Amino acid sequence: MPQKNTNIQTQEQQQVLQLTPQQVLQVRLLEMPIQELEQRIEKELLDNEGLEKGPEENLEVGDSEQDLEADTPNDYEGDGGVLEDKEDGDYGPTEPRIQDGKTHTAFESLPFSNEDTFGENLKNQIAEFDVTERQRELLEYLIGYLETDGFCRKALWQISDELSIYFNIETSEQELEECLHILQQFDPAGIGARNLQECLLLQVERKENDALLELKRQIIQNCFEEFCHNNWDKIPGKLNVSKLELAKAVEELRKLNPRPGVSLGESETKNHDTIIPDFYVSVEDDGTIHVQLNNEHLPQLHISQSFSDSLNEYVKNKNKMEKNMRDQMAYIKSRIDSAQGFIAAIKSRQTTMLNTMKSIIFFQQDFFLDGDDMSIKPLTMKMVAERAKVDISTVSRVCNSKYVETPYGIYPLKYFFGDNLDGVATRIIRAYLKEVIENEDKGKPLTDDQLSALLKENKGYDVARRTIAKYRAQLGIPVARMRKN
What we know:
single chain, globular
């Protein structure tokens, strides 16, 4: 009986998102803070003799009438900085007015530790592990996704998608998981954790020859909620241990570091550098908000006059030129095309940066007017992306390692996002709870459910009752029945 041929060739269509070199350049320039951008421009000026700095002199290249100026306006005019009466009766902030070419006045700077040391220290540790070149590359990207506290909060499938879209690196969630496990072996213990529970467990597992190791592991794995809420009475029966054993284990668990990335930065950099802001924001007495890009040290860029003259000459006499001359003109044209692409990418970066910053100011206008942390509203990158009409990943890149100088100090752009109830949002919630409880009717103290409802109504934060209970306990405030007079 003849064997069936199983080698069957089929054709299928697939849609693959492939970024052009120009798009890749725009993405990479967008990620750069101002210091790196200055260095990148200087490198491009050295590498491409068709690109020069200085003001442009009515340049025409070939038959193109494209404007090649790199110095776009530093600001965009909005609709004013006051509240606007809308047709449906609701009130909301209008788009803040943006400064029109005024010279920025420096405010008092706030010191920040040098973030480069954090990443470089982790990258240097890669050499201590037996990894492939592929794993080394992925580890470096994963390190770039770590937040300042050392956590990797972005889902691995999202990282996989972004590596594919922006860097043409095809990887799977499983492969990234394997690399993350390697990263979690780096120092300090807890680096690369995806949440607090995993962070503490990674630190517990590092303690060799620890008589309480298994008990501490069980507390974190099986009684984490009770541990966080200080519900000590429930743990002994659940784990079948004595209260004395529990007390010893808890005492050691309290010594663990919930933010290992911060401790790494502190240990590596005792001296602090002043961050160069990417934006300047100022406020006039009438409440008008001005925003300006920091372009003070960025040169104007234009195409080399000699290159453009040579190309224009070729356009006029191309039919009379010999082959070697045509080859020279092809090289000149390639340099001009590259220079045009770089200038366009710089312009795109400036426009995207300003539009994103304007959108942040739109949502956080109250803070920029008074500088009060309590004025910061819940804000997600999705909200900013929709207003700026860009992708969420674009907003993420604008906000990464970028700073804004305000009359109240220098702030990282991520300071204005509080969608995960951490960072500044947590401080706002705690301060609000403390204020409300201090002023409550002691004859009828507010329950955690009532506090949750007030928080949502007055501050816009939708926080669960048990989260309210956690913050209340952290503030040392007893339950409602214990506060009743």
